[in-house]
């Protein structure tokens, strides 16, 4: 059985999830479907998987389960779950207590099988188990953020274009780019399509376009799209067909205009209304055709009223046909132009995707966004028991939280597992709320919870909870807040045609809150003639916060929710400005994502400035004038970019170079040469940051070091690449903040989901229900354009949603997407309004264009009849849980209840709090000395060091094509320098290029490197390389670097040959290879 619990905001979702977990952990299912107590719950926990969607939720869930088991196991009567569990499990509290105590002990002793995890973590566990089957290295890393991979992919594409410019593929790509750039210039846009985005811009660029590679619509079609784009003639033919269609339909419009003039030539200009006949001039713009088509079938709009009756019907019919022809042609033109506007971007997507794939293979990483598609090949093609057997799990029950945020691909991978659970008679729980689905941009699909789950499983396999009023209690909010939200969203959903989705929006007030009235205040703000509405609202926000503090609320009881980060920044600046004139104990402290972002730290700015200067010196290290000019040009470019990104002049220069002088590396590094970025950063912290700065910026410094360490573990110790990573991804990292920091919380509505606060202020509560600038991906089988063969269409087409979807070939798809967008905005509003526990204040700018403010004003004026009509849509009595907004509205203010005074809380004053100590750094530069396991303690310049390193490089080479990657591996790990990489590469490539050695590195050979062998006497031997050719010849090779020729090397290889021969390899050949001298000595068995 699957229990689908539709948990509205504040309805105790976590409580019910823990209750179900405890029931499955402590109970056993009887044949009649009831449960009884399991008195020996040995490994029940190993058969339960609870899936959450954030790491924070995972940790909270684990702590809560353990805490409740501890309470049940020691004093069952103190647990809020005890009575319900005793009823469900048909047991007594003493028996329940004994079972809970055993279960807790078993769980803690087998903690690895305490399966509470995020959906991504669970999928990664399966993926690692099946790494071999999907051709992944077992030690791959996960790349959580697509931004860096996209940046590298685009950068590598440019590099490839430069390096292989003479190939047919490169010529085709170059021609496509030239046409693209010309088209951009014609549109008045920047020709530089490779330019990274700077600040907020509505213009699509290659980086923002490539981000859509993580969208599931694209992922489902990417293989077909790459196949389509591999042959550039196909997209060129499609582009030509679109251009021909535009020209043809322009001719049709001109012909329709000519026919109109022919039909009406006998009529005087006076009979036409507003010179309607003068509009049919030919060569019409899209705006002109739109105005004409709006009047189709409306003869009263064509002719003056007094003349309309005298116009022959044949003329009216003829005019209408002409307008219809214009409309059809205009629709085709608009559709073609919408496709053409993004077609050049689409043409580059296959090359970018291929470049990203190369990047992931070279660096042994898997994009997190690719996980679901890879897993589909595993789970979809195997029986679930086989998957469990490989993973080492025996999952019987699934508890899935926040199900409305599940994506289609995630559900495709979970569905077989849940179906298997049902087939064996086990119970599962799905918890979610379609009303709180606000992450569609992250591929979440609320239709799975709303519809698809009911078509996936049989009706008798599903039990719904939370759909009726008696099952829907709000335990979070005070009475007035609950009833305002009940009323507001009942009316709002009705107005938007979404009453079916919001059928369970009305909630009961929890018994504990029935005497707690709460306070709701919505105020419509007129614009000040001098300063506009923003300053008026911000002044009110400051006054509201100070009022709340004066009534006994703490700063961390208050949250300010914004729709956009820029709005949050305005609030932060206002509160900081207000605090400058106040004493320390009167200042309003602020915590927000922006205040915790790592790039804002002065310590991190200094570190990045130093690293940038070091990188600049490395790239242009010589002191001749040309290099200095290049270095200066690079610095100027960085300064300009930083200023364009919003930095002030001081910050821009500091981040670009740190200071105007070259860095003395000997002084900085104490005569040593750090071989990793982390070591370099540690030295910068030690020598360039003051004690005061280290102490005040400890969290930022430690987070930065974590970023550096993580980057090096994935991509190696290339400083230039790290700085690229920093610009694309790393700089946006935020530090974790303590939950109880004494500061007002400022966050976006999306960030607030799942949180609650006693007081909530929404300063700019007015947003559009639908945005028309969003890029959408449409599968081509859903559209058609007359005159363009369907086989010319690519598998998917990117278009920007039109303001008038009815005027394009995409109208049906756009209408569906428009409904989804309106639902997402309605849900976002619901999330914002349901965060407050005791007090909610919202300000609505009257002169700011936005759909929500207008609709809320209508709702604020609703009377009893409006409420009764809305309530009648629901099949149960909900009137008692609603209110009449008009009773509380006074023209510009809706106010329900009075300002509240907080209830006293247990502040846990006895808890010990300690400040985090300042960042400590040692002065032991010897710790940085290059050290590798099995490495000789020789100086880097010594022949022995070089020999050992080249020997290790050779062990990673299977064919001659692997030389570059093998050297790159040691270079990026910081184990060899750039100069050493170049030197070793020349030596190795020269050796492999000899005719005799070439056979040993040819494709198709079976190669065994550094594999130990044991002879009959127990002696261990480790030949450097054993090669078995496709013809069956066996060859053993021993590498020598820098050693003089010696007969003992021949005897050593002869021993290898004898052991290999005794293993069944006939007539093995043996060679000693002095690689630097390229001398090869053959070894005979006799």
Automatic annotation (TrEMBL):
Q: Where is the signal peptide?
A: none
Record's superkingdom?
A: Bacteria
* PROSITE patterns noted in UniProt: UVRD_HELICASE_ATP_BIND (PS51198)
Q: Which Gene3D superfamilies match?
A: 3.90.320.10, P-loop containing nucleotide triphosphate hydrolases
Where do the annotations place ATP binding?
A: 7-14
- Asked if the keyword ATP-binding belongs to this entry, the reply reads yes
Q: Which UniProt keywords apply?
A: ATP-binding, DNA damage, DNA repair, DNA-binding, Exonuclease, Helicase, Hydrolase, Isomerase, Nuclease, Nucleotide-binding
State a GO cellular component annotated for this protein: cytosol
Q: Name one GO molecular function term.
A: exonuclease activity
Any single GO BP term: recombinational repair
Reaction(s) catalysed (UniProt annotation): Couples ATP hydrolysis with the unwinding of duplex DNA by translocating in the 3'-5' direction; ATP + H2O = ADP + phosphate + H(+)
Q: What is this protein called?
A: DNA 3'-5' helicase
What does UniProt list as this organism's lineage?
Bacteria, Pseudomonadati, Bacteroidota, Bacteroidia, Bacteroidales
């Amino acid at each position: 059985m699957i229990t689908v619990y539709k948990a509205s905001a504040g309805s105790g979702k976590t409580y019910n999830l823990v209750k179900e977990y405890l029931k499955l952990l402590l109970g056993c299912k009887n044949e009649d479907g009831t449960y009884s107590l399991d008195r020996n719950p040995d490994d029940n926990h190993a058969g339960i998987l609870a899936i959450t969607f954030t790491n924070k939720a995972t940790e909270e869930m684990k702590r809560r389960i353990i805490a409740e088991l501890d309470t049940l196991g020691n004093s069952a009567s103190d647990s809020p779950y005890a009575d319900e569990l005793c009823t469900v499990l048909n047991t007594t509290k003493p028996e329940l207590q004994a079972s809970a105590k055993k279960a807790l002990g078993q769980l803690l002793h087998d903690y690895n099988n305490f399966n509470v995890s995020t959906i991504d973590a669970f999928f990664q566990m399966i993926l690692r188990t099946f790494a071999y089957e999907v051709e992944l290295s077992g030690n791959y890393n996960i790349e959580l953020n697509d931004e860096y991979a996209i940046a590298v992919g685009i950068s590598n594409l440019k590099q490839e274009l430069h390096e292989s410019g003479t190939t047919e593929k490169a010529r085709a790509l170059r021609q496509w780019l030239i046409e693209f750039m010309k088209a951009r210039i014609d549109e008045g846009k920047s020709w530089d399509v490779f330019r990274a985005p700077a600040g907020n811009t509505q213009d699509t660029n290659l980086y923002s376009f490539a981000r859509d590679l993580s969208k599931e619509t694209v992922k489902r079609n990417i293989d077909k799209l790459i196949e389509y784009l591999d042959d550039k003639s196909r997209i060129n033919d499609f582009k030509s067909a679109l251009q021909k269609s535009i020209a043809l339909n322009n001719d049709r419009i001109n012909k329709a205009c000519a026919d109109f003039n022919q039909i009406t030539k006998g009529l005087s200009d006076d009979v036409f209304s507003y010179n309607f006949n003068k509009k049919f001039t030919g060569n019409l713009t899209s705006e002109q055709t739109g105005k004409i088509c709006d009047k189709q079938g409306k003869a009263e709009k064509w002719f003056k009223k007094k003349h309309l009756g005298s116009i022959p019907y044949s003329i009216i019919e003829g005019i209408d046909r002409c307008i219809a022809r214009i409309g059809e042609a205009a629709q085709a033109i608009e559709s073609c132009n919408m496709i053409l506007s993004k077609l050049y971007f689409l043409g580059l997507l296959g090359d970018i995707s291929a470049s990203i794939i190369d990047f992931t293979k070279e660096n042994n990483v898997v994009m997190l966004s690719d996980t679901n598609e890879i897993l589909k090949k595993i789970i979809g093609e195997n029986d679930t028991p086989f998957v469990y057997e490989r993973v080492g799990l025996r999952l019987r029950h699934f508890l899935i939280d926040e199900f409305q945020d599940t994506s289609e691909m995630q559900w495709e991978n979970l569905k077989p597992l849940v179906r298997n659970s049902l087939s064996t008679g086990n119970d599962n729980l799905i918890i979610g709320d379609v009303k709180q689905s606000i992450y569609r941009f992250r591929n979440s699909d609320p239709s799975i919870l709303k519809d698809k789950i009911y078509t996936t499983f049989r009706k008798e396999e599903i039990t719904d909870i939370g759909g009726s009023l008696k099952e829907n209690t709000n335990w979070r909010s005070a009475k007035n807040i609950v009833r305002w939200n009940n009323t507001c969203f009942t009316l709002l959903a009705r107005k938007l045609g979404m009453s079916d989705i919001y059928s369970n929006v009305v909630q009961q007030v929890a018994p504990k809150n029935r005497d707690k009235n709460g306070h709701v205040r919505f105020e419509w703000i007129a614009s000040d003639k001098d300063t506009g509405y923003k300053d008026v609202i911000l002044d009110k926000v400051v006054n509201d916060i100070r009022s709340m503090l004066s009534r006994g609320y703490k700063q961390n009881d208050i949250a300010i929710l914004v729709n956009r980060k820029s709005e949050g920044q305005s609030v932060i600046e206002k509160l900081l400005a207000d605090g400058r004139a106040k004493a320390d104990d009167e200042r309003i402290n602020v915590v927000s994502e922006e205040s915790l972002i790592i790039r804002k730290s002065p310590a991190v700015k200094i570190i990045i400035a130093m690293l940038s200067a070091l990188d600049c010196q490395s790239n242009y290290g010589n002191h001749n004038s040309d290099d200095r000019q290049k270095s200066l040009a690079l610095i100027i470019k960085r300064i300009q970019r930083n200023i364009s990104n919003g930095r002030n002049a001081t910050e821009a220069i500091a981040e670009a170079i740190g200071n105007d002088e070259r860095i003395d590396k000997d002084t900085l590094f104490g005569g040593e040469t750090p071989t990793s970025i982390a070591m370099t950063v540690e030295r910068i912290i030690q020598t360039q940051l003051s004690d005061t700065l280290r102490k005040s910026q400890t969290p930022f410094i430690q987070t930065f070091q974590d970023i550096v360490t993580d980057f090096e573990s994935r991509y190696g110790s290339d400083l230039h690449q790290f700085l690229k990573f920093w610009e694309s991804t790393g700089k946006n990292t935020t530090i974790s903040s303590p939950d109880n920091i004494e500061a007002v919380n400022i966050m976006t509505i999306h960030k607030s989901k799942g949180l609650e606060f006693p007081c909530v202020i929404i300063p700019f509560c007015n947003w559009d229900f639908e945005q028309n600038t969003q890029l959408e991906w449409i599968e081509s089988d859903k559209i058609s354009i007359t005159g363009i063969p369907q086989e010319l269409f690519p598998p998917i087409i990117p278009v920007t949603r039109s303001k008038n979807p009815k005027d394009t070939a995409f109208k049906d798809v756009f209408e569906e997407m428009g409904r989804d967008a309106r639902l997402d905005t309605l849900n976002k509003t619901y999330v914002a309004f349901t965060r407050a526990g005791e007090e909610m204040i919202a300000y609505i700018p009257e002169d700011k264009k936005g759909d929500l403010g207008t609709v809320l004003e209508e709702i604020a004026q609703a009377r009893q009849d409006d409420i009764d009509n809305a309530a009648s849509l629901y099949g149960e009595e909900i009137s008692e849980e609603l209110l009449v907004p008009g009773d509380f509205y006074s023209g510009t203010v809706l106010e329900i209840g009075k300002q509240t005074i907080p209830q006293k809380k247990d502040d846990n004053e006895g808890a010990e709090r300690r400040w985090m100590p300042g960042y400590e750094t040692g002065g032991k530069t010897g710790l940085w000395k290059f050290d590798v396991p099995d490495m000789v303690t020789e100086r880097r310049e010594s022949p022995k060091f070089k020999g050992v390193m080249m020997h290790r490089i050779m062990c990673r080479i299977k064919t001659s094509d692997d030389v570059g990657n093998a050297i790159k591996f040691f270079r990026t790990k910081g184990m060899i320098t750039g100069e050493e990489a170049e030197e070793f590469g020349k030596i190795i490539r020269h050796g492999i290029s000899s005719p005799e050695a070439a056979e040993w590195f040819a494709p198709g050979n079976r190669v065994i490197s550094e594999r130990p062998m044991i002879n009959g006497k127990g002696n261990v031997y480790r030949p450097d390389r054993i090669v078995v050719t496709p013809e069956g010849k066996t060859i053993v090779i021993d590498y020598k670097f820098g050693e003089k020729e010696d007969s003992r090397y021949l005897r050593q290889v002869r021993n290898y040959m004898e052991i290999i021969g005794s293993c069944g390899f006939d007539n093995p050949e043996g060679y000693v290879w002095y690689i630097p001298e390229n001398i090869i000595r053959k070894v005979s068995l006799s």
